[in-house]
Design brief:
414 residues; alpha/beta; D-Maltodextrin-Binding Protein, domain 2; 2 domains; 6-stranded mixed β-sheet; 16 strands; 50% helix; globular
């Protein structure tokens, strides 16, 4: 158990106060999340609309900032006896200590009644919600981090064709710089830089080596030549992003949208920003899963957890919301707006744009599907890697020193 969990549990009376009011004509539930960019706000609005269309009230508890900012606030409220009724987290290991402490609602009855085991694809999403045979979260979407987004306008200004892969992109960088364009947009936050690191790792070292380190904690691979090549490539990426002076991921995406940057490495949630800006996939921007070198998807994403609240009516409303989130209508409406893929394998997304279709093809093929880092590494280990990436990208730390520090983290990973 983490130090934060221990200290909060020791100093808090764990009596859950009601985070909802059950009305005669429906339930009023507070829902926390960190979806605050333009595209994200539209997507979460689809969830609120669906809940309210059923005669209920959605009390929006948006927390500005990234998941790294929001998660400690969410966990502190649950531990402190002031839980929300529902909250976004990533399916994986982030909530396992809350589950072990008995603070999150068991959703197994909803999952069984709605046949989640048969319809959720890939099955690893539901497995990531499961502890000791019981299901504690409702998977909402599949988000993959392994994407590069490229500005057609930037490459037109530079007089170049849009690159087809990472190697072509690196080769194009001098021409972009001569045209006054930042080659790589990158927000100055460790989690964004860690996404770039992970994406470059899979593209250059390959899936087997990534799994050997992230899943199997293989130190020999982490110290080997394949990972040396990765850290050298990340150092090159750092140089290409040297003039990217923005903080938030969506501001980096906006650099691609406004043609002031050639590309961004970011998860497929960036598509929501392109959609809000009226950009058309394949016309205004291109997307490269796996940087065009290894077309893969890591099946991370968002899920909803429901804190235990001592009220039967509230519990019934929470179970109703859990079922709603996985319903076909919500899966279509939310994911088309979010730019993510649905967790259901039985719905029609033929209206999805060209980039979403690429993701759907990979998902349907069954090849190139990986567990997310959240499913392999504990929250503590993830934070350590993010801190290392933040230090590396903001300094002149050598690739060799960064690799040595990374190997040390993996050697201690649980």
């Amino acid at each position: 158990m983490t130090k934060m969990m221990k200290s909060l549990l020791a100093g808090t009376a764990l009596t859950a106060l009601s985070a909802s009011v059950v009305l005669a004509d429906g339930a009023e539930l507070e829902v926390t999340h960190w979806w605050t960019s333009g595209g994200e706000a539209i997507a979460v609005g689809k969830l609120a609309d669906a809940w309210q269309a059923a005669g209920n009230t959605w009390i929006d508890g948006a927390i500005a900032g990234s998941g790294g900012t929001a998660r400690p606030i969410i966990i502190s409220r649950i531990l402190g006896g002031d839980p929300m009724a529902a909250t976004q987290l990533n399916h994986g290991r982030q909530a396992e200590e809350l589950i072990e402490a008995g603070l999150l609602l068991d959703l197994t009855e909803v999952a069984e009644a709605n046949n989640w085991a048969e319809i959720i694809n890939p099955s690893s999403l539901l497995e990531a919600c499961t502890l000791d045979g019981r299901i504690y979260c409702a998977p909402l979407n599949i988000h993959s981090a392994q994407w590069m987004w490229l500005s057609h306008g930037a490459y037109e200004k530079a007089g170049l064709d849009v690159p087809a892969n990472w190697n072509d992109f690196v080769a194009s960088a001098p021409a972009l710089q001569e045209a006054g364009i930042v080659p790589l947009a990158m927000g100055q936050q460790g989690w964004q830089q860690n996404i770039a690191f992970g994406t470059i790792t899979i593209a250059i070292a390959g899936v087997d080596n990534w799994l050997a380190v992230n899943r199997d904690k293989n130190i020999d691979v982490a110290t080997g030549p394949e990972y040396t090549a990765v850290f050298e490539a990340v150092a090159a990426a750092r140089a290409l992003a040297a003039d990217s002076n923005v903080q938030d991921w969506n501001l980096a995406t906006n650099m691609v949208i406004t043609d002031t940057a050639g590309a961004q490495i970011m998860g497929d949630w960036a598509q929501g920003e392109f959609q809000v800006a009226g950009e058309v996939a394949g016309t205004d921007y291109s997307c490269l899963p796996g940087l065009g070198l290894n077309a893969v998807l890591d099946t991370g994403g968002d899920a909803f957890y429901f804190p235990v609240i001592d009220d039967d009516a509230t519990r019934a409303a929470q179970l109703e919301m859990a079922a709603m989130l996985v319903s076909p209508e919500v899966q279509v409406d939310f994911n088309l707006a979010k730019g993510s893929l649905p967790v259901r394998g039985d719905i029609d997304l033929s209206s999805a744009n060209a980039c979403m279709q690429k993701g759907l093809e990979i998902l349907a093929s069954g090849n190139g599907i990986l567990p997310s880092g959240d499913m392999n590494l504990s929250a503590d280990t993830q934070t350590q890697v993010e801190d290392l990436m933040a230090e590396f990208w903001s300094s002149d730390m050598s690739a060799a020193d960064a690799q040595a520090a990374y190997v040390s983290i993996i050697s201690r990973a649980d």
